[in-house]
Amino acid sequence: MSGGASDLTGKHLVAGDELSPTGALFGGINALTGEHLGPDYGEADAATIGRACSAAGELAPMFAASEPAMRAKLLRAIADGILDLEDTLVERVMTETALPRARVEAERGRTVNQLRLFAGLVEEGSWVDAHIDHSVPDRAPVPKPDLRRMLVGLGPVVVFGASNFPLAYSVAGGDTASALAAGCPVIVKAHPAHPGTSELIGRVIKNALAAAGLPAGLFALVHGRTHDVGSELVKHPAVKAVGFTGSHQGGRALFDLAAARPEPIPVFAEMGSMNPVVVLPRALAERGEAIGEQLVGSAVLASGQFCTSPGLVLWIDGAGSEALLAKLRTGLTAAPSGPTVHPTIRTGYERTLTELEGLPLEAHVSTAPTESPTAVCPRLLTTDATALQDNPRLRTEIYGPAVVAVRCRDAAELLASVKSLTGHLTATVQGDLQDLRDHADVVAVLRDRVGRLIQNGVPTGVEVCSAMVHGGPYPAATDVRFSAVGPTAIQRWARPVCWQDWAAELLPAELREDNPRGIRRTIDGELVSG
Ligand code: NAP
Q: Atom 13 (ligand 1): residue with closest C-alpha?
């Protein structure tokens, strides 16, 4: 085991150095009791941020051209280092977030698997999407030049993780793993809800760089609890892209900042979602109660702290309606209160519910006690199609275990309701083949509004594989063309570069005639395996 929670220092990790916190200090919080957890962390100042970004900028060209085997070694060393932390890591995560052991261990497994997945991807090498179009010197009326294209790393990436996934969407989460795989240095802004967890993982990355023989400046971990640290990172001229997982407000603010820079840069922000669930008539009649039970289980999972939590359910009034509604009501109001990862999540949940109070809906509230400073109570909010269409707030994420249930009078109301939705990560359709055929118009509208369509399941649970799409139209994400989960996530951190009539011996290995890396390439329009 390398390092323990007692070795935590509260320092920023920048270009191999450990910089002591200065200015206003803050610590972690025991998410069950609200107790302060040492050590203290501080806001990264301008000099610290400048140093982290400049070091990353200087090393970026070297890292983009580095041997894929070196990057694979780094990613595997990070995965091994995370496992080597054993219970030190699991216990710190549990204390800082109140997430149960089984969930933390599963998230650790996912994080490690993601790192190994990207190690395998860069080692295999075909992700660079190499194209070779040979010259045609005797083409008339003008000769065709020799053109060769592949993807190369964009440069330093700033990563912001979310509070609810302290491992899989944090310091060594999917954004960091895919950016390092692409050959991009990474600067992480630690989430203030789990600073100790962040430091433990940050130290693993620092050690893994040294073990792989790579310069320490390829990674930095800086802390901060005000938005200033994140804003300064995004504005730094050496930074070339941003990966963000979190709230709509945060993602949008950073997207606007990045667009306003003298040199605008891409921001891949994965934000909140309501994950609408449409229950079609035949499924409702046959399985109304069972569907209600399935939805309650998904909605209260981890106190509703999943970006894929089902926050909106719609159906057409008819056979099965009462059974579905009764199950949603009893299930949600009987469910115990549960802790969230930080007191600010509880405050945010309660503030949102207060904002909804004047709207045309009926609230069914659990009476479970909420002694813990982070605990929230599940709740069902019933309303109708007109209210949903007239009030955008009812169509926006309520982050926590709340479900908005919408009873539509007929198919036209259901269609108008789904048309009123903006972008979400997922949509679930409960229905058999006939249902889906009868309501093809509803399904078509949903397809245009989400990144993933689910039939007869629940949206929680995101598989890490190449067919996965974790993203969606705005406001679920700021770039609908990419997935933040799975191997294709690497494409966010790379850009195509074309070499024309270039000296063969100076071409990147991936574009050389003899294909020394043995990768899959498109040659003169034909896909050729390695
Ligand atoms: P958050 O409050 O937006 O925080 C995310 C990070 O962004 C933190 O480091 C935060 O640090 C920073 N930040 C937020 N606003 C900022 C601003 N205006 N300027 C600069 N930095 C800013 O999100 P959260 O509460 O941790 O996470 C919950 C949200 O994440 C939910 O909406 C959930 O649905 C979403 N989520 C989405 C996904 C997905 O894949 N789509 C996955 C998990 C969670 P500071 O506060 O210190 O600035």
A: 250
What value does the mean pLDDT take over residues 279-300? Answer: 98
The three-class DSSP label of residue 479 is: coil
Contact 268, 478 (CB under 8 A): yes
Beta strand ranges found along 124-247 (DSSP E): 130-133, 147-153, 157-160, 186-189, 219-222, 241-245
Residues 315 and 171 in one domain: no
- Number of domains, the chain: 2
Q: What is the pTM of this model?
A: 0.97
For 36-64, the pLDDT digits (tens) are 999 999 999 999 999 999 999 999 999 99
- Shared domain for 62 and 166, answered yes or no, is yes
- H helix runs in 212-247, sequence order: 227-235
What are the phi and psi torsion angles at 487 (to 5°)?
A: -60, -30
Task: Give me the pLDDT at residue 5, please.
Answer: 63
Which stretch of DSSP H or E encloses residue 201? helix 195-211
Helix or strand run (H / E) with residue 12: strand 12-14
Q: Are strands 267-270 and 241-245 parallel, antiparallel or unpaired?
A: parallel
By the 8 A CB rule, do 72 and 121 touch? no
Whole-angstrom distance, CA of residue 354 vs CA of residue 346: 12
Query: Cβ < 6 Å from ligand 1: which residues?
Result: 160, 162-165, 169, 189, 191-192, 224-225, 227, 230-231, 245-247, 249-250, 253-254, 270-272, 307, 397, 399, 425, 470, 484
Among the ranges given (1-5, 51-55, 294-298, 484-488), the one the predictor scored with the smallest mean pLDDT: 1-5
User: Mind listing the pLDDT tens digit for each residue in 328-343?
Assistant: 999 999 998 999 999 9
266 and 281, same domain (yes or no)? no
Does the residue 311 lie in any domain?
yes
Q: 244-264: per-residue pLDDT in tens?
A: 999 999 999 999 999 999 999
Distance CA 5, CA 34 (A): 18
Q: Which tokens hold the place of 45?
A: 């100042």
Q: Quote the longest CA-to-CA distance of the chain.
A: 82
Report the alpha-carbon angle 224-229-233, nearest 5.
135
For residue 496, the cross-strand partners are 151
Task: Point out which residues pair with 278 in neighbouring strands.
Answer: 314, 429
Q: DSSP labels for 424-448?
A: EEEEEEE--HHHHHHTHHHHHHHHH
